[in-house]
Design goal:
With 102 residues, this protein is an alpha+beta fold. Helix content is 34%, strand content 10%. It is built from 5 helices and 2 strands. Strands 1-2 form a two-stranded antiparallel sheet. The longest helix is centred in the middle third of the chain and has 10 residues. The protein is elongated.
Length: 102
């Protein structure tokens, strides 16, 4: 786990490495979802287990399961050479914050 700027949340949050992220994903009981019929469940209900495991790993209470899905270190690029915020993607060539070319 590493604290990093999240572009969607607009603040620094704990980001999960790939192994930690796999632990969060493994908490979801996909068979249970299939038996209940996904069309009857809201997105929040489908991924209700994500925030609890995320909190156990990071100590940070996240209430939005969708936010947990984008708090993965490997989704972000290296820090900007000028401002230090992470690039929005691994392929980004322009910083989304200060617009510096990388």
């Amino acid at each position: 786990m590493q604290r990093l700027w999240c572009w969607r949340c607009k603040c620094e949050v704990p980001m999960l490495d790939d192994d930690e992220f796999s632990r969060v994903l493994s908490q979801q009981d996909l068979e249970k979802l299939a038996s209940q019929g996904r069309e009857k469940l809201t997105l929040k209900e489908c991924f209700a287990e994500f925030p609890a495991e995320y909190e156990q790993i990071t100590g940070f209470k996240e209430t939005n399961p969708n936010a947990v899905l984008h708090h993965q270190l490997s989704l972000y690029g290296p820090p900007c050479k000028r401002c230090g915020k992470p690039l929005r993607t691994t392929r980004a060539r322009l910083c989304g914050s200060c617009m510096a070319e990388q």
